[in-house]
Amino acid sequence: MSQGAIAFLFIIFLPILGITGSKLLCIAHYTDLIFATFGCLFMGIMMDASRLSERLALIVIGICGSNLRVLQAGIMVVTSLSSIFVSSSFMSAFWMKVTQAIIAELGNAGVLVPNSDEEPYERQSRPYPSNPVVGIYLSIAYGATFGGMISLFQDPNADLYKFFQKFTDVKPGSFLMLFVGPFILGLVVTAIWINVIFLGLFSGSVKEQVQAAANGKDAVKRAMEDKKGALGPWNAYAILVFLMIIITMLLLFTRRPICWPGWYDYFHRSKCGLSVAIIAMCLLYFAVPANYFFCRYYWCRQPAKEGTAPSLVSWKIVNNNVPWAHVFMLCAGYGCLTGYKDSKLLQLVSNGIFNQKLDNSVSLIVGCLLGTLITNLAPAQGVVANTLDSMLNPRNGAGVIALPYAAALHNQFLLPVSTTSNTIVAGFGNVRPFQFLLGGVVPTLFMIIFICASIAIFGNIAFKGYLQT
């Protein structure tokens, strides 16, 4: 059964079983984050249409060469660092397209086998990527998650910070103090684990493939010189696309910083989510011409050769390349969260925790485990909006697990629906859920330990006795 059909089972069976109504489920399929995800996918498709991804891939190959371990570590680091300042969803789509172009070039140079020989379960569907390629793709997804963990410029940290400000005078720097240690240690553990599982760090046929790719630097160098000649100098199309992407990054960076007012704070009538900036720019993707022929209608001189002025990306290309099934599964994750809240199961769990009267050390573990479980079933932004205030409010006695619960919402490693970054990587790269499970099981376990340790060490310092209230 196709993945897209499975995603709609929630709409069918949750109302029939009396868990929640179809109206709420349909609303959950049109959240702000879903539209932001569409915008990120459109941007990535535009990069391929303009061949901007190929031009940027040549730059990255010039730095990393054909060494897949260096490429994996470098991609993971740049994705995490860029995701600190710009939406992790947007940056995962950006680096995913650059990485796919890199993989294609290494495959054309004959130093890497991009695709697995396993037959796809759906006829005429895209081939599955090989193990080394899966490892590099997962590095993008997990790097984006780690970057969002210590970000002062995007949700859900902005919402989490506002939540805790209601009950304590925590400062932005103190708030992020809890995440610096897990961020650094988590990156190291995850990079090593991906090398072990997907890049054959110790032994096996995959290790031989990785070594062969590293030894093929001369072939890659010759192939890149030919590619540069084929692409030629930067044209107006690629320059305009890159300019649009940079403007979008600036809009996302200045939207809602924790440390100073952003343009979000000046619109008091309604909430301006990520989709406002991303979809606004997407409209320009479809409207701005990809070349200079349109100038003849305005102020430029008549072009020497007549032609058309197509837009930066067309809807036909977008419609054919958006991984619709993966987006529908992301919507199903929101549907699961809607049923969790509307069926009163959320309140039942909250009351159960409160009635146990757990001490701080046990609450630390319970909150971290619960946050990890919930955030792997639905993106953290939706979890924060639907559960944090109602379930873990210090006024109802359950606040002692609010801090570990909130911190654990960044443990988004196990499924394609755990975060929009995972969805984008799974959709563009055809990475399957069991591969997320393989790549994410050890990072998840270690992140639980790191987060609990960080809160135990720095929690009272950062939140000034909040854990004793």
TrEMBL record:
**UniProt organism field:** Drosophila grimshawi
Q: What is its main location?
A: membrane
Q: How does it sit in the membrane?
A: Multi-pass membrane protein
Answer yes or no on keyword Membrane. yes
The subcellular localization recorded is: Membrane
- Which spans are transmembrane here? 28-46, 58-86, 134-153, 174-202, 234-253, 274-294, 361-384, 436-463
UniProt keyword annotations, A-Z: Membrane, Transmembrane, Transmembrane helix
User: Which family is this protein grouped under?
Assistant: Belongs to the SLC13A/DASS transporter (TC 2.A.47) family. NADC subfamily.
GO CC annotation, single: plasma membrane
Protein name from the UniProt record: GH11690
Q: Which InterPro entries match?
A: SLC13A/DASS (IPR001898)
Q: Which GO terms describe its molecular function?
A: citrate transmembrane transporter activity; succinate transmembrane transporter activity
- Gene name? Dgri\GH11690
